[in-house]
Amino acid sequence: MHTGQAFSRLILGLWRIGDWGLSPAGVANLVQACLDLGIDTFDLADIYHDHACEALFGAALRTAPALRPRLRLITKCGIRLISPSRPQHRVKHYDTSREHLVASADHSLRALGVERLDLLLIHRPDPLMEADEVAAAFTALKEAGKVAAFGVSNFQPHQVDLLQSRLGEPLQAHQLEVSLGQTRALFDGTLDQAQRLRISPQAWSPLGGGRLLQALPESPLGRALTRLSGDLEATPEQVAIAWLLRHPARIHPVLGSGNPERLRRLAQAQSIQLDRQQWFQLLEAATGQEVP
Ligand SMILES: NC(=O)c1ccc[n+]([C@@H]2O[C@H](COP(=O)([O-])OP(=O)(O)OC[C@H]3O[C@@H](n4cnc5c(N)ncnc54)[C@H](OP(=O)(O)O)[C@@H]3O)[C@@H](O)[C@H]2O)c1
């Protein structure tokens, strides 16, 4: 079991696990391939794969129990989906009550078959969030040894401030959408806050869900990525990840590929250093305008 808080710089996200057609042994093989690449952190959620993602990952760990001590597991809670498996839900909603957060974490632990979650994130900001209740849930989970650290996802800076104001210890992570396809977090205070509070930002959809690469020949961004990847002897997707890694808030891209060969290439992005002008060239191409 890891004792520190450091997550690998690259994280494998398991949102798309249902598309990969993997058996538990296949998932275990993918996990091993990630470990071989230095990716030891895995991002799940209670709701992924229609609530079956954690159980599938847990089944993989049961086929290869030696893997568990080498992994860091992130999961999320707080969204209640309409689903045949949740007939009591009449409307999609958020639930950050103490009761639900604790029950959700307990459910995740059972599904994964592990004693402790390395990081638990509140998946979306809940307009009915009572920060004191969330703090009480976090304290209960921490004191029971069930969760090592807590964070949020998709929060605005003022929502992070509210929650942090009631917590006894710092939030460790903020998972948000940021990429060359979605640059808002660079300018709306989210990444500034992460840097100020030393909250690790985790970038979901770092390749825009694949759309950044699919539009290569047609868009200014696609052309800029292609040109720069030629200069850097890299692939466009490596350059897109290197662009995130260059940010001073120390962004952790949450990769969404289930393809080991693609993951191998993406891991190599960690050795690409974009200089300032290359970084701004891509920003300009992404936003369609030069900085003022
Ligand atoms: N917190 C949140 O609210 C939230 C929201 C969304 C996602 N997430 C997390 O973020 C993770 C990553 O999100 P994501 O899956 O959207 O990430 P992504 O890495 O931007 O997209 C992955 C998708 O892009 C495809 N792709 C990659 N390179 C490509 C290329 N060169 N050409 C065509 N397609 C390419 C992959 O296909 P292959 O599999 O074939 O490589 C895969 O389907 C999720 O798994 C989840 O853990 C969190």
UniProtKB/TrEMBL annotation:
Gene3D superfamilies: NADP-dependent oxidoreductase domain
GO cellular component: cytosol
The NADP-dependent oxidoreductase domain, residue ranges: 9-282
Domain of life the protein comes from: Bacteria
A single MF term (Gene Ontology): oxidoreductase activity
Short name of one Pfam family: Aldo_ket_red
InterPro entries assigned to the protein according to its UniProt record, in alphabetical order: AKR (IPR020471), AKR_Detox_Biosynth (IPR050523), NAD(P)_OxRdtase_dom_sf (IPR036812), NADP_OxRdtase_dom (IPR023210)
CDD domains: AKR_BsYcsN_EcYdhF-like
Protein's name according to its UniProt entry: Aldo/keto reductase
Organism whose genome encodes this protein: Candidatus Geothrix odensensis
